[in-house]
TrEMBL record:
Its main location: membrane. This is Ig-like domain-containing protein. One of its GO terms (cellular component) is axon. The chain crosses the membrane at residues 220-240. Residues 27-113, 118-214 form the Ig-like domain. It is found in: Cell membrane. Residues 249-278 are annotated as: Disordered. It is a single-pass type I membrane protein. Keywords: Cell membrane, Disulfide bond, Glycoprotein, Immunoglobulin domain, Membrane, Signal, Transmembrane, Transmembrane helix. One of its GO terms (biological process) is axon guidance. Residues 1-23 form the signal peptide. Pfam families: Ig_3 (PF13927). The lineage of its organism: Eukaryota, Metazoa, Chordata, Craniata, Vertebrata. It comes from Anabas testudineus (Climbing perch).
Amino acid sequence: MHPYAEMLVVVLLGNLMLPFISAQNEPKINASDQTILSAENSGKSVTLQCNLTTAHTPHKESFWMKNGLEITNTRTEQRNTAYRINKPRADDSGEYMCVYTFDMAPNANATIEVKAKPDITGHKRSENKNEGENAMMYCKSVGYPHPTWTWRKVDGTSYTDIDNSTGRFFITNRDNYTELNIINLDITTDPGIYECNATNVIGNTAETTILRVRSHLAPLWPFLGVLAEIIILVVIIVVYEKRKRPDDIIDDDEPVGPMKTNSTNNHKDKNIRQRNTK
């Protein structure tokens, strides 16, 4: 065989064997199965575990991450590593990862999903606006996987789904946040109860917001109320003055004190004459 042909065969065989050799050299990690947080196991601690079973080069250390961020105080040099969640709640759910580092090789990792149904942690309880203004309602949640958000208006036992097709309703969704904006509020059709619903593969949760829409004259009502009270008070005073009896009015020309009568004066004069004759 020609030397160049032999070299070509060696190169081709090497390229074919390279993925197999690389796969054989990759570290192997045994990791815990996914965990589902539920009301039944509420309060019970959850332990996530990883064990580096195979590595062709010595590992340096390992640590844990949650949703792409390293969890503090989890670095260790042991091949068998664990992370414990005490009293897990919905906000403890997410994508956990154990990571092993090597001096002479790339990092190796394994992913463990901790799932929980959405828990709405914040929402606007009420919104008070005037007709013609814009209203904004929102909901925030925790839980994994990230929920699918829906909005609807509650009318007794019936519901009306809300979407962006009307031209006045606009819904904005992110992973754990949703927002409903209503523009140019109508006082006859828009007031009511609005519900946000968060749903994932584990379950769903909903919360409501009360929207109140006032008339354009609403800001003037306090002023009109005060004005009405003043008018009523003035009318009462006028009526009272007109109904006063004439006897209750004192004439300025009359003397204030009691007047002495002539009979009294005559009696005093008589007493004086009697004392003089004696």
